[in-house]
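INFO batch 0412 | record 1 of 1 | parsing
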Amino acid sequence: MRNSLVATSAFAFAGAMAMGQASAADMLSVGIGGYMQQWVGMASVDDSAEMVKDGTAQQSDSEIHFKGKLESDSGLTFSVKVELEGNSKDGTQIDESQLTIGGEFGKITLGAEDPASTLTHHGGLDVGITLNCGDTHKWIGGGLAGCSHNGFGTYGHGHGDKNQIMYFTPRINGVQLGASYIPDAGQEGENKALNDNDDNAWAVGANYVGDFGDGLNIAVSLGHYQRSQTGGTDDMFFDGMKRMEDADPVNSLYRVMDYNDDMADVTTAKMAAAGTTKSDAEDSTPDTLEELRNLAADANDRMASHMTSMKLKADDKTFTNAALQVGMGAFSFGVVYATNDGGTYMTANADRALTESEFNSIKNDATDTRYGANHTYDPATGKVYGGSDNSGDFNGSGSPADETATNNDPRNDDPMIRMDKVAEDQSKNWDTWGAGVKYSEGPMAVSLSHLATEWDNGDEQEATMLSVSYTLGPGVASKTSIFMAEKSLASGREIDGTAFVTGIAIGF
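INFO prediction complete | emitting tokens
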């Protein structure tokens, strides 16, 4: 897909350049467009993790678009667009910036833009603050998911504004196809050097728009986005357990006893440095304290390596959306759907009993003194016998007799191995669906829409919105939305909110 898309774009671009140029007198015509939305809203939120919150807010959303267009004598069109953010909290002022070359072959876009799967999507019937983009979270907050790839929306806006190569076919019999190749999914507008494309993405989209007369029209869309993600591979794992990078032999495991020892080193160093333990504080010369710090640093490195390395494991992220809209006179009906597979994994910490083969491996290892000749393993109970109290010694001295009836670590009676269970990060996997109806008559439009998301980890969110829009003049409309939204987390937290939002939207 990557090679064919790049090749197609390159040939089309070269052909476009060869077809002719505009005369020197025909310079690019430049204009200014954009929009401004100003909102006032009141909300009431009941969050089981916090107190009830009621309040009023004023919010804004605005952009200025600088546009230019030139048509050559051969019929090719060259257009540019740069979007300047009017509301930016992170210092990013330019939203999108691209060049488009169009002709009978379709159009090619180079620059920062939403992918084809987003641009072809027929996603919204709401005439207010746009439910399908997840604007409800801006008013209710409290952990509600928002627009784009966070889960509450079907456009996939979070994949956008990335530098890409995009091609759209001409619309033929109502059908248009589009494709995007994004060499670096982390590149948003800024320039980056050539890389190995290990974090690339591609997207395809298609839609159909048909007018059958007598007020009947249909719009259908289908899109898919896929992004590669850097991370480990399956050969990083051994029987479901993580190998330590510095382990020798290679199949040795990071055991719960090792973890406890590392934690003890870190705790001892902290207490010695703070002087909170008499023996450590009084007996620690600067050299000894420095040794404790070094031990703690090494222990931290081991724990960090073990706990985070497998979190890098990742498959491709995929996002698929679909929509259907049917118009019948003044009424329009629509349904939307999107599904997301985050492709990320996490390590679920677990302990399991020592197996006989692992016991024998430790016992036969001359460098590992935790089991001696007088230790035996009982397959029936999974316990290790030997020493004065019939338990193994994991206190580091190597002498089973060190554990006595008065000095016994009960964790050693049932030897366990600490392991990492590779599990899908289900908070990244979700399905969203929605439905809506709209009525338009003259300058007025009314819509009622519902959107719901279910995550694989058990979280759920839904919202219902009633909106009214009234055109006050060319490009000027008053908009009002009343909505209810709620989120239920698998942890038991409940968030419920209602809001009334009204404002003016101006397009220019």
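INFO post-check: The first helix runs from residue 2 to 18.
INFO record closed
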